[in-house]
Amino acid sequence: MFQQTVNRDIGAGIPGELAFDGPLRATPGIIDPAATAANCVLGRYFTKNRDTALYGPGGDTAGNVDLHFGGIAITPKELINYGTVAGGPLAPSLLMKPGSQATFVEMGMVWVSVAAPAQISDKVIYTIATGVIATVPAETAVPALSLAVPNAEVYRVGTDLAGGDVICIKLTN
């Protein structure tokens, strides 16, 4: 019997995991205790407050000059998993608690999840309010209430997830 189909559903990576060896710049930091807990998710964009040195998901719509690029939250194996309300204390989760320590990558290749299919070389953007990562074609303008992740592009497209993707983004900061 010969193989009849090729499945594309091989797991590519876990959001927040480093994807490949190569240049890496990552910094440990504390998530702002005042951050919205639902937005503190591995694989999302975080900004760093210059005054407090705390990291918060997303950015600031008011143009706060004290906030600057913090990075993408990474390393789920360092995460203390508290489970979920629905699944119990042993349920898998990518949520981090506000006030906890995390690692933020500024340069490297990392897996993230996006809600819509992506293409290699797409521009990587994030929602200002939540830090949720998305992509747009390189020549497309960044939509309202979103900003481009500095020096980031889609490097590899991974696993389809109900219309979205787990993708590898390359940060060259």
Structure summarized in a few sentences:
The protein is an all-beta fold. The protein contains no helices and 9 strands. The model has no long low-confidence stretch (mean pLDDT 87).
Report on the structure:
The chain has 173 residues and is mainly β. The chain has a single domain (25-172), classed as Virus Head Decoration Protein, Chain: A. The protein has no helices and nine strands. Strands 1-3-2-4-5 form a five-stranded mixed barrel. A hairpin with a 4-residue loop joins strand 2 and strand 3. The model has no long low-confidence stretch (mean pLDDT 87).
Radius of gyration: 16 Å
The tally of domains stands at: 1
Cα distance, first to last residue? 50 Å
Derived from helix and strand composition plus strand pairing, the structural class reads mainly beta
Distinct helical segment count:
0
Shape: globular
Identify low-pLDDT runs: none
The CATH class is: Mainly Beta
Strand content: 35-45%
Beta strand count: 9
Q: Give me the CATH fold name.
A: Virus Head Decoration Protein, Chain: A
Order of SSEs, N→C?
EEEEEEEEE
Q: What is the strand arrangement across the widest sheet?
A: 1-3-2-4-5
Largest sheet: 5 strands, mixed, barrel
Q: Which bin fits the share of residues in helices?
A: under 10%
> What is the average per-residue confidence, as pLDDT, rounded to a whole number?
87
CATH architecture: Beta Barrel
